[in-house]
Amino acid sequence: MALPPHLRPLIIAGTPDAPHTLDIFLDYVCPYSAKLALTIDSVLVPLLGPGGEYHGKVKVIYRHQVQPWHASSTLVNEAGLAVARASPESFWPFSLRLFQAQNGYFDTPTANEAPEVTRGRLANLLETILPSAKKPFLDLVALKGGNGGNAVTDDLKYTIKFSRQNGVHVSPTVLWDGLIENKIESSFTEKDWKDFLGKRVIL
């Protein structure tokens, strides 16, 4: 699927020129998304990486799925996009760290928290991965004033529009070569992934 060049860090597994594409729509505050993300890291990343069985055949694109019934969803997904700009190599490690810490960004913990406080906590989370990325991150999420959003608002709009035009409503949702693949679930095991790829990829 198409991807703006500056969002190339969202390719989290495989090679950019791989003929097959898995678009995986995840929300950082969705427990099922967290489960799938951790499996992607432990199973798909090795399978699609150098020396993996499907290296050069399949790429995985992380798609931010903002779910507005969780008020913090906008802020955490905005943060992921900001990290992709501030420190491209930190995007996937930050995403995994945020999934592991997602309980702290659920509805109740953020209910009485100002957005700037939440953004500050997300910056501190990034700092545990790469301290030098904290200031660029904070600069990117700083509000411009009035109703102008911030430096990654356009990226957030892009991700939301992409989800809408593809009929994606919830996370996790997975597209295989542009079509929704309902067989893929958060409970997918290593065997399930190998079976799925084995039936669809011609080596």
Could you walk me through the main structural features you see in this protein, from its secondary elements to its overall organization?
There is one protein chain. With 203 residues, the protein is an alpha+beta fold. The protein has a single domain (5-200), classed as 3-Layer(aba) Sandwich (Glutaredoxin). Helix content is 45%, strand content 11%. It contains 8 helices and 5 strands; from the N terminus they run ββαβααααααββα. It has helices at residues 31-48, 73-86, 91-100, 107-110, 115-127, 134-141, 153-165, 190-200; strands at residues 11-13, 20-26, 58-64, 173-176, 179-180. Strands 1-3-2-4-5 form a 5-stranded mixed sheet, sandwiched between helices. A hairpin with a 2-residue loop joins strand 4 (173-176) and strand 5. Helix 2 (73-86) packs across helix 5 (115-127) and helix 5 runs antiparallel to helix 6 (134-141). The longest helix is centred in the N-terminal third of the chain and has 18 residues, at 31-48. The chain is globular. The two termini are 21 Å apart. The mean pLDDT is 96. This is Thioredoxin-like fold domain-containing protein. Residues 11-112 form the Thioredoxin-like fold domain. Pfam families: Thioredoxin_4.
